[in-house]
Design brief:
The protein contains 12 helices and 40 strands. It has 701 residues and is an alpha+beta fold. It folds into 3 domains: 268 residues, Beta-galactosidase, Chain A, domain 5 (Distorted Sandwich); 299 residues, Alpha-Beta Barrel (TIM Barrel), CATH 3.20.20; 109 residues, Golgi alpha-mannosidase II (Immunoglobulin-like), CATH 2.60.40.1180. The strands form 8 sheets. Strands 6, 7, 8, 9, 11, 12, 14, 15, 19 and 20 form a 10-stranded antiparallel β-sheet that branches. β2 and β3 form a beta hairpin. The two termini are 42 Å apart. The model has no long low-confidence stretch (mean pLDDT 97). Its EC number is 3.2.1.22.
Length: 701
């Protein structure tokens, strides 16, 4: 059988499933980007494949999908360590497939759910139930899928603070390629996903299968292959020792594991996830122009200065003004106050109302920063409840950023934090919350559980806290931030309207960060701000046009002390805000494309309208090119038969660079027009441009 049914050859990730032998779990023979006809399905059915839940008894000597044991046996442990599930039921419709199985000898039952998502991706999860009398200690429960033998290259990501989403690529080899997230969130070095593909796959070409785990806490992804067994790709939650102990009748459910098969490269896989995200109830729709005051004032909160900053923000077209860290009790620097969520009367003797009223009177929304899960030792919270932070038994974890992590798995701590934040949001007319999370979970045990690990419970409690506050304050939009680019994942995206992509606001560094963050998350979620002329992170000075054109393709905003900007800069910034507002519907609803360019100092990317009738393409000259050959842009996803006219968008420097020609005044095709087929196959040639410049092309049918 194929799920979902795509006998017409329509696009969308499809499983070819063999459930003919009910004495074992169904076997996935193939994962395809399109539905197979009967002849192709018959051939694919001859492949060995693998079950969605891998069992040692299958047999397999690769990593099992279920690892655990029952607290029974000769030594009081080790029972039911190996399972052999038998299928009891398989049901499906156009959108959902369910597989039920049980192992009576092991006393375990499992239900696997596969959902077909809007946009063409699938998501899969297991639910394991202990039906035996003795407790069952679960160590791992993962979803697995087979990989075709021509998927011979792997891509995933690593990173650091201010340099997240760095791609790494290598050939698939025998053994295990294992990526783990152990920081209690999708970390700054998060793999984001693992992509397996045909040799040389790129943004617009090649067959790929991408897997991502929708865990908001710890996660694991892997690819395994041996000389005897074909490659398979797997993912699930990473569980700490003893975290999940199932008593009789209790169940554990994995996070959703997302899988996308595409025959048009990385952009095809990304597009499927973006289309699903745009169908979510929490999707933000069109994003306002946002100004965050952090790099303008840091902890120096002064009402007259902030009012003047708001005046200038309104002048250039800002629609949302966000007050960042520093407004609450004793928060004069990063060493104190976290956990004490009330307005500091020493800094704000009249509360936040004067600023909020001023911002609203200027026609802007007001946003406020919180870090609900963090605690400074120098806080009333910690002095009153030192046992309300995560710690292993008998000791506190090493401090980082002068912070501990609040124990949200403790109901008393959870309620205290909920009530404190709720009181602020009840008191003040807040339109937007930036929710930060600035340190990893180290030794994530709970004193309320005698120091036992609670990373799984902590992640669940975080979502429960966020959702409880969302329900009580339904008019507020929510941004997820975690040291910049952490906690960007397919679990959190169902609950927020925005992510802070990175604490790196240097536009040149942002090119690669934003380029690859978009592999997982639609661009309208990804905060992209125009920084000050000289970057606070790198010390590099970049033009306003370069900084603004970089921010244009994300959730556009500003991170700059506008009280220091010249009148000329304010006028130029206002024109860029106007460009964003004019084009944001296309930018935030179209299909993101990244062009494969032969010139290594150029990257090109953009958005093509969902109907293929218009596009905006950015040509980014990162550095000096070694040649004067220029670059040819082959623009995908246009309609072949339509004729397009082109124009330059925003400020453009038409002058030639030495020993080259300039840009044509009439637009990228001069005064001519071009068909979609010509643009995708022949392409548009542009001469070498000056380094650290962006040229924007606007195409319309």
């Amino acid at each position: 059988m194929q799920f979902p049914t795509r006998h017409d050859g329509s696009c969308g990730t499809t499983l070819l499933l063999d459930d003919s032998d009910r004495s074992k779990l169904p076997v996935v023979r193939a994962v395809n980007a399109v539905g197979l006809d009967d002849s192709a399905a018959a051939l694919a059915a001859l492949r060995p494949g693998c079950a969605l839940l891998q069992e040692h008894s299958a047999p397999t000597f690769l990593r099992p999908g279920l690892s655990g044991h029952r607290l029974s046996g000769a030594d009081g442990a080790g029972g039911s360590w190996s399972t052999k599930f038998e299928t009891t039921d398989v049901t499906y419709d156009d959108a959902v497939l369910r597989i039920s199985a049980r192992d009576d000898l092991a006393g375990l039952a499992v239900e696997t759910t596969v959902e077909a998502l809007t946009g063409g991706a699938l998501r899969i999860r297991h639910r394991l139930t202990n039906e035996g009398a003795a407790a069952y200690v679960l160590d791992a429960l993962e979803v697995s899928l087979p990989l075709p033998d021509d998927h011979v290259e792997l891509l995933d990501f690593t990173g650091r603070h201010e340099r997240e989403r760095s791609p790494q690529r290598h050939p698939l080899a025998d053994g295990v390629w294992l990526r783990e997230s152990r920081t209690g969130r999708a970390g700054l070095d998060s793999p984001s996903m693992i992509v397996a593909g045909t040799a040389g796959f790129g943004f617009g070409h090649g067959d790929v299968i991408a897997l991502a785990v929708g865990a908001v806490g710890n996660g694991t992804m892997s690819v395994a292959r041996s000389a005897a067994e074909a490659a398979r790709i797997s993912g699930g939650e990473l569980l700490l020792p003893g975290e999940i102990v199932l008593k009789q009748g209790e169940s554990y459910e994995t996070p959703w594991v997302f899988v996308v098969a595409a025959d048009d490269g990385l952009d095809g896989a990304a597009a499927a996830l973006h289309r699903w995200q745009r169908s979510l109830p929490a999707h933000p729709g069109i994003q306002p122009v946002t100004l965050n005051v952090w790099e303008a004032v840091y902890f120096d909160h002064d009402l007259p200065r902030l009012k003047e900053l708001a005046n200038r923000a309104a002048r250039v077209g800002v629609e949302r003004f966000v007050l960042d860290d520093g407004w609450f009790h004793a928060r004069r620097d990063a060493t104190a106050g976290l956990g004490d969520w009330w307005v500091d009367p020493d800094v704000w003797p009249q509360g936040l109302t004067p600023l909020i009223d001023h911002v609203h009177a200027l026609g802007m929304q007001f946003g406020l920063w919180f870090e609900p899960e963090m605690v400074n030792p120098d806080s009333d919270y910690f002095r009153a409840h030192p046992d309300w932070v995560l710690s292993a038994k008998g000791r506190l974890p090493v401090l980082k950023r002068n912070q501990f992590v609040a124990d949200l798995s403790n109901p008393q701590a959870w309620q205290h934090i909920h009530d404190s934040i709720d009181a602020v949001l009840q008191t003040y007319d807040v339109d937007y919350v930036k929710w930060d999370h600035n340190r990893e979970l180290l030794e994530a045990g709970s004193p309320a559980r005698d120091g036992a690990p609670v990373a799984h419970r902590q992640a669940a409690a975080y979502l429960a806290l966020l959702d409880a506050l969302r329900q009580r304050h339904s008019g507020i939009a929510w941004e997820s931030c975690a040291s910049g680019g952490g906690r960007i994942d397919l679990g959190t995206v169902e609950h927020v309207q925005r992510f802070w992509t990175s604490d790196m606001t240097d536009a040149l560094s942002r090119q690669q960060i934003q380029r690859w963050a978009g592999q997982l998350i639609a661009p309208e979620y990804l905060g992209a701000h125009i920084s000050s002329p000289t970057s606070h992170q790198t010390g590099r000075t970049l033009s306003l046009d370069f900084r603004a054109a970089t921010a244009l393709f994300g959730s556009f905003g500003i991170e700059w002390d506008l009280t220091l900007a010249s009148e000329e800069d304010l006028d130029r910034l206002a024109s860029w805000c106007a460009i964003y507002r004019e084009h944001r519907e296309l930018l935030q609803s179209g299909t993101a494309v990244r062009l494969d360019c032969a010139e290594p100092t150029v990257i090109a990317h953009g958005v093509v309208g969902a109907d293929g009738r218009d596009a905006i393409i950015a040509v980014v000259q990162l550095d000096e090119a070694a040649s004067n050959r220029g670059v040819t842009l082959r623009i995908p996803r246009l309609q072949d038969e339509l004729t397009y006219r082109g124009e330059w968008l925003g400020p453009v420097d038409l002058k030639p660079v030495s020993h080259t020609v300039g840009l044509p005044e009439g637009g990228p095709f001069a005064d001519a027009q071009a068909t979609g087929a010509a643009l995708s196959q022949v392409g548009v040639w542009l001469p070498r441009r000056r380094p650290e410049t962006i040229t924007l092309l606007r195409l319309r049918a």
